[in-house]
Amino acid sequence: MDLTLSPQETAFRDELRAWLEENNPGPEPSGDDAAFEFRREWQRKLHAAGYAGLSWPREYGGRGATLIEQAIFNEEMARARAPMTANVLGLVMGGPVVIAHGTDEQKRRWLEPILSADEIWCQGFSEPESGSDLASLKTKAVKSNGEWIVTGQKVWTTFAHEAKWCMLLARTDTDAPKHRGLTYFILDMEQEGVQVRPLRQITGEAEFNELFFEEARIPDENVIGQPGDGWKVAITTLMHERAGLAFGSAISVKIALGELIELAKERGVADDPLIRQRIGQLYIEAETLRLNAYRGLTHQMKHGIPGPEGSLPKWQWSDINQALTELAMEIRGEEAPLADSHWTYRFLRARANSIEGGTTEILKNIIAERVLGLPRMR
Ligand SMILES: Cc1cc2nc3c(=O)[nH]c(=O)nc-3n(C[C@H](O)[C@H](O)[C@H](O)COP(=O)(O)OP(=O)(O)OC[C@H]3O[C@@H](n4cnc5c(N)ncnc54)[C@H](O)[C@@H]3O)c2cc1C
Questions:
Q1: Quick one: 131 and 79 in the same domain?
Q2: Which of 85, 115, 145 is where one domain is finished?
Q3: CA distances from 83 to 23, 80, 114, 181, 244 (A)
Q4: pLDDT 10s digits, 111-150
């Protein structure tokens, strides 16, 4: 891949940079509800300016931009330290999955309200007994009179408490082999059969939830793809999740490294050879993360969907972010356990990086088997 930007790409980047300078609302307010409303307003502003769903088709409210422009957008958002959008899961996974596997009617129904943040999405995949081995999931959907009736439980469902729609993976054929008996649904969260219970994290936030389904209903037209094809659709979702992270995360770790260097200077340890060596190593790793993000993009440009290479930046990002925040805590010394610093928050939040979106061990298996072609474990 040629890493030089074309004149059009440079113009796009400059225009976006100028827009961000004018419009970036700055840091989020504290408190889960206030932060959510702030992110929703921010996403609406981005959408009004044509900066939501960049690579989505124009007819569904996107900008029809190239994947390179989408990558530039993610980099610039991170560089400007712009806040998160409210509908991250809809933008990164829900929309791309509907675009890849949905009918025209489904695209017309769901895509625009994702962009405007009028309808928030969540991802109901993991269950108490099924995380890494996702295909073993037990939540069941049974067809009856033209609709599906869902019973079961999901867990770790990020933003379920704000969501209108849930990307739900459920078992619809208990006799088929485990990967073949699954169907991918879009479930309306606003109904009696759905209960959402918040889970509080080590950071104090309650970003994610448990979800309980007691005869929740899904109309047949909310199946994505065909019944029994859920695994294929789920894999598209997960690959978009990992690829979507890559560019923004490459820039955010570079910014965090700059802050770490400032911290080392402030605390008078910037001349310590061991600290310098660790920061240098992190810088090298951050650079390979950026180049691997381009590797994933090259695959997506050739094949239309992200490939298994997307697992590599996700693994690298979690390693780097954890090592970086651990080093910051060491440099802060006896102040490290105080909860009054953004470093403490980052250190605690980084613990989840090697679990969310697929654990590092699972990503290594994917890279071994599907990128390097090594023999399968099972
Ligand atoms: C912040 C956060 C947000 C999340 N948001 C969502 C969400 O919105 N929707 C959703 O559906 N899920 C979500 N998850 C769940 C996440 O996808 C799962 O936690 C993850 O897939 C791991 O599953 P598990 O927790 O059941 O762990 P397990 O699968 O039980 O794994 C336990 C340990 O065993 C290891 N392991 C398991 N199998 C293997 C193997 N074959 N080879 C080697 N090691 C193995 C794992 O790497 C891990 O260290 C979120 C998780 C976090 C932390």
A1: no
A2: 115
A3: 11, 9, 17, 39, 16
A4: 999 999 999 999 999 999 999 999 999 999 999 999 999 9
241 included as an active-site residue = yes
Q: List the residue whose alpha carbon is closest to atom 27 of ligand 1.
A: 131
Ligand 1: centre distance to CA 128 (Å): 10
**Quick check: CB of 359 below 6 Å from ligand 1?**
yes
Min mean pLDDT across 127-141, 204-218, 325-339, 349-363 is at 325-339
355 lines ligand 1 (CB under 6 A): yes
Whether the predicted pLDDT of 35 surpasses 70: yes
For residue 317, report the distance from its CA to the centre of ligand 1, in Å. Answer: 16
Q: How many domains does the chain have?
A: 3
What tokens does 243 get?
Answer: 């690829």
Are 175 and 300 members of one domain? no
- Indicate whether 22 belongs to any domain: yes
Q: For residue 303, what are its two tokens?
A: 């094949």
Clarify whether residues 92 and 106 are in a common domain.
Answer: yes
Structural domain range at position 294: 232-371
Say if ligand 1 is within 6 A of residue 123 CB.
Answer: yes
| Average pLDDT of span 37-44 | 96
